[in-house]
Structures are given as C-alpha cells and as structure tokens.
Amino acid sequence: MENIYIFSTEVMWSGSPACKIEVPERLTVSHTALQEEGLAERCVSVPIRQATDAEILLAHSEEYLEAVKKTPHMSLDELRTFTQQYGDVYFHPNIYHCAKLAIGATLQLVDSVMTGKVRNGMALVRPPGHHSQRSAANGFCVFNNVAIAAHYAKKQYDIKRVLIVDWDVHHGQGVQFAFEDDPSVLYFSWHRYEHQGFWPNLRESDYDSVGKEKGSGFNINVPWNKVGMENSDYLSVFFHVLLPIAYEFSPDLVFVCAGFDSAIGDPEGHMCATPDIFAHLTHLLKSLAGGKLCAVLEGGYNLTSLAQSVCQTVQTLLGDPAPQTSELNGPCESALESIQCVRSAHKPYWIRNGLALVPDVSVAMLCAAQHARMSLTNRYTPFMTFDLDQCVCVCVPPQGCSDVAGLMQAVLCLLLPLAYEYDPGLVLLARGPGSGVGKAAWAQITSLLQGLAQGHTLGEEEAVGTTAASLLGDPAPSLGPLGAPLPEDMEAMERLRQRLQTHWGLLQNAGEQMITASKETYSVTQMDNNILEN
Ligand code: Q6M
Ligand code: ZN
C-alpha cells in the first residue's frame, strides 16, 4: 500500500483584483521543495477532478453556488462589486474553476484513503476553504473544501466520527459554523485571536464556543491571545487539550486543515513555531483513526517556511521519523491561560479532572520520575525508559493496568509531555509479563513514542509482534471510544502531575495565577455582554 497522494490545483490570479499573499507561487514552491527533497517521487500523484454541483451543495446553498457560477463571465467591475459583499476575498475570472478543482482534489484524496489505496495523503490546493460559509465567500476561500469532504466521507463511507484539526493560524469559522450542532464531527482550531483583536475578530472564535445543542462539546477553540507562540505551546495544546479529547472521541477519519501560516516567519501569523513541529503534529495525529489522515492545504504565506513545513508534513506521512525536538519547555503564560480556559470550558464534556492509571501506578511513576534512575530490574515492571546512561523510567507495577482510558490519559498528559521535554536519545520499550497493558494500547504507546529520539526505539518484550508491527510503521489500531477513567485514579494522577510540573514545564495545564486570570477574563466578557445588551 502506497502512503500518499498529492494533488495540485491550477495556478490562478495573475490579474487584478489580486491578492498580495495568496499567490500561485505557494503551490509551485511547495511542489519544487518536495521534488528537491526526493519526497515527490516517493508519493503517488493522482489526477484531480472537478467537484460536481451536488458535492458543492453538501456544504453550500444553491443561491450561493449559482452566484459564484456567474463570476467567470463578469467584467472586472462586476467582479469587484461581487467581491465587496464578502470579507477579505478576491474573485478572479478563473477562481470558480480552481475552487471546483480544489474540492475535487480533496475528494479524490478521501476516496483514496477510504478505499485503502493509500494510507494517508495531502492535497496541495488553492483556493483554501476553511473560512467559506454556506452562502458566503470569506478570507481567500470560495468553497469549504474540508467541510464538503467531511460531509462526503460520512455519506459515501460508513463513517460515524470525523475529526477536523485546523492548525492554520486563522480560525476556520466556516468549518465551525458547518458542524456546530453536529456531534459526529469534532472540530478543533487554534488561532491568533488577541482577545478578538485579530481577523476575523469574531466573538465565536473564543474558547467558550464549545458547540451547540447535540454538538455541545464537539467544537474546540484555542485562542492565542499573544503572538510569538513556540513549539512548546503547540505541543502543550496537543498533549493537554486535543489528544485526550481526540482519543476519547475515537475518530474513523482525520482531516487536517493544514495551514502553515502558524509557522515562524509568516506575515499573517507572527508565530515562532518551527517547520519541524509539523512533523510532530502529523506524527501524533497519525495514531488516530488507524492512520487514516487527509491533510488539505489552507494558508501559509512565507514561501520559505511554507515549503519547509509542507515537506515536514509529507515526510512524516510517508513514515520517516520526526526530527529531534530540542529546547522544549513549558508553555508561555498566555498559552497556559488559554489551555486552562479551554480545559475548563470543556470539562463538562470531556476533560477528566486529572489523569490516572491505578493508585499504585502513580506511586510508581512518582518514584520513577523523582529519582530518575530506576533500573530495569527494580521491583516495578517498567513499561518504558528513556536514554541509556541517564534513564528516566516510567513504570507499571506487576499487578498491572487494565483500565485503558486511564492508561491513555496517563500516556497523553503525563508520559508524552515528560518524554518530549526530556528529549531522549533512545527510547527503550519493555512490556513485562503481567503488565496488563493490552496489545492495542501497547501499539498506541509504541507508535506515539516514536516521535521521540528521531524514532530510535528499541522494543523488548515477550510478545514481539505488536511492537515490531508498530516499529515497522503499521498504524496503531484504534482503541474505540474511551470511557471515563476511575475517579480515584484521576485524583491520584492529578496530584502526581501537580507535583512533577515544577520540574517539567510541559506537564503544566493550569496554575493558581491562571485561574485568577481566567476569572478576570470572564468578568470582562460579562461586562461586554452587558454593554451590548443595554
Ligand atoms: C487578511 C488581512 C490582511 C486560509 C487562511 C486565509 C487567511 C485570510 C486572511 C485575511 N485577512 N492583513 O486562513 O490563511
Ligand atoms: Zn490562515
């Protein structure tokens, strides 16, 4: 089975009215970089097609489609007038044609992944889609490529749950609006927000838009209230917000609204995450949905960091190990505040108050992390260690761990942050007899830990098969929707996390001072509402 498909849509907008940053070169530099890195030849390319009217109507109104259909025949003046009814979008006579190809390419990717022709893939398309709404173009977007594709995937295949991860630096409000009341589509977006000061300046982009009615809890917004967010901030949000919820949700298919304006050097985003972070974000998401992942290009306007980020994403989709992460620490204060706010907004729906295995495990972990040098032959059965000369062991006691929900919470919110910050040169995996960790969970752990140490992982256990399969790049099987961990375990784990977070910044997900800050934010919001109402 080949790993990836790439599609490119046609170049457009050489005329005016033109957009200064959403330019054809975005696709050409990305494609050239993939060729130069030898990645393009490792990918399967397939021909793209036009979307049909019926497909466009999955997410748009008939009136809107009919209006856009007229744009190729408009004069420049008519185009300008048409454009002005929407925000930050530029209609070119060729854009309707390109927009249909962008959807068609995305749907070909869905078909290829869902029929098992490929394991995963990326669609390099223009125009982007995530701002586009049922009856409106917006923010360089004409049709909502990913929203249409999510509808399409649910309709064509027996898919119950779709996860959309929007790592573009802008809020994909179009995707949020499309699935707000739909519990079968979980939408996650982080975005530059600056307390509503940044485009598209919507109240609905804040952390308290959690979804509506049946869809409550299925919309996750992480607002960045400061620019300059770094790798540690992005990873913290994955560890403490997205991944625990995504594992509990257990999607059948994952889409990424893959915008790279969240990378360093972007004129829109002003963030500081480096292109190699996208290798890790991709790696972590590949553990979901049995590896079925469709990445679809959205933004990204610094041609250098865009091309590098696309390469990192594609390389990881192809199964190459992610590069070593260095200098990770805790999230910055503003990021921590956002994380705390999102977690408390979602507490009623998902976030368990803390983490857990069984009480004895937390004792084991506490010992392991505090003393940091336990040997493999100690009285605990270790299930993994990092680095050979300076071992950090994380242990499961002989009586084992049978609660998968608790185990995964511990892995995502405790083990991964600790491991990423420790930055080991080697990961040694050992599952002793009677550990109680089942095959599927073990495959997940093995696969997740391969994001570390450039994938240098040694497995050692009685049942070699599971570890070997994951090490060879087989996607870890999905664990299915996870229930709630045992309450006493959650408490024990939370106590452990709190104690360890003084040494390991990436373990932080809230703080005393942050709780106060979020209360202040809340009262300001309340005040704003009162002013609006009066
Ligand atoms: C531009 C304001 C100019 C796909 C995307 C599109 C972003 C549109 C931004 C429009 N505002 N300073 O999310 O990257
Ligand atoms: Zn963007």
TrEMBL record:
Its main location: nucleus. One of its GO terms (biological process) is epigenetic regulation of gene expression. Pfam families: Hist_deacetyl. Coiled coil: none annotated. It is found in: Nucleus. One of its GO terms (molecular function) is deacetylase activity. Keywords: Hydrolase, Nucleus. Gene3D superfamilies: Histone deacetylase domain. Residues 22-316 form the Histone deacetylase domain. The keyword Protease does not apply. GO terms for cellular component: nucleus. Belongs to the histone deacetylase family. HD type 2 subfamily. This is Histone deacetylase 10. It comes from Oncorhynchus kisutch. The lineage of its organism: Eukaryota, Metazoa, Chordata, Craniata, Vertebrata.
